[in-house]
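Q: Hi! First time asking for a complex rather than a single chain. Here are the components, and I think there are two in total. Is that enough to go on?
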Amino acid sequence: MSSRKRHLSLKTLLTLVFYLIIPLCSLLLILQVYPELPKDRFYMRIYWVLTTATVIVILAQLSTHYQRGDTRRFLLNIGFTIATMIWMVGLLGGGVVIPMQWNEYDFSLHMQNYIVLIVCVAALNMMYYTLEWKVYRKDNTLFPSQKETKTSTIIK
Amino acid sequence: MNRQQLAYFRVVALIMAGLVATLTIGNLFTIATKGISVTIPTEEEIHWSIDPLQKEVLFRTSFSVKNQGIYDISDIDISAHLVKDDMTPLFSFNKQDMTVLRGSNTTFDLLIPLNLNTISFFDWFSLMYKNTTLQLLLDINALYMFGLIKFTANETIDVPWSPPLLNLSDNSTVQAGVQSLSTLLDFASGKSISSLSDIISLFSSRNISYTAENGFSFSFYISNYSESVKNITFHIIVPILVIDGALAFTASILAGIDEGGFVFRIQEVGIEYVI
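A: Yes, that's all I need. Here is the structure of the assembled complex.
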């Protein structure tokens, strides 16, 4: 466990499970159980999930290499948040209006309000990362010898 | 802001992010896997009756919505329009603010009154003799997940229409008479342009009186209104086979030539339910 901590942070592990493994399994399960659903859309979703989730995992891992208050960590966290936003939109179908089909009937799902919710949550996370960056940068300037001690136990 | 407050903020932001991601995966499952589905009634499940006093045709049917999602479906609005092939509306129907609770299978009974007074005689009559395809334009809207997701469906369902007048009588003279009446009504209502040959063919028509065993009756009388103008009267009774009673169509039209040119003038048209 201790060697894993050095190489893969808890944040990275959770990101890997939550953003890559669970959605990928869900999509593959849907494809298996409901073969009548249009496969192209699901392959497109799988492509999106694979791409964005890989980026999210890499950003999560890279951000843990830097101390809180470090500008590089702040930028990586902002990138992480933007990537999760793209991941959610991609998983939902990649647009504000999603055309779907049951039997021979077409219908649309209008996701405007849902996208607004995703953007709001992303903004909340960005606000956190900005505050974290400001608070820790100030502290690091005032107490340059103080090292961050809890990096291994707190989800960064 | 100190580090402790920042930690609390972090917890809130993390929970929100996790919640939205979970909702996204949950919605994907519910929506993609038909956790929500609608059962539309078949032709056999649509019943109808006539209220002669109100001059209404009442259609009764039902449809059901299965909601196996984790949120209620709210504000379900249904708007239906039945139109002819030329998009002339025959009737409209709206029902709003229906709700299907989560985990339930809800059946909605629909009672659709169709007032005969709202449909013009010409539209009615053309349905009586013309093979056509009606279109049912359906608009369905609903909200899911506290209004975060809006569901819309716009469907056009073709309804093949077999004209009862021509089906009721095999008599070719009657069928020709019905066609003549429709042509006359089209002239009189300005929907098509007449020619001299039309006038000559009308003037050469003879009186028809025909009654079938099933109660179908067709009469065509032509009389002199003036020297060059004829008064053409039709009276058609169409039995409604599923219930007692019949629909009676009456039309009286002046046709001919006067100083101003061709004359096609409707004297009287009417449709009524008779027992």
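A: Chain A touches chain B through 42 residues (CB under 8 Å). Let me know if you'd like any chain examined more closely.
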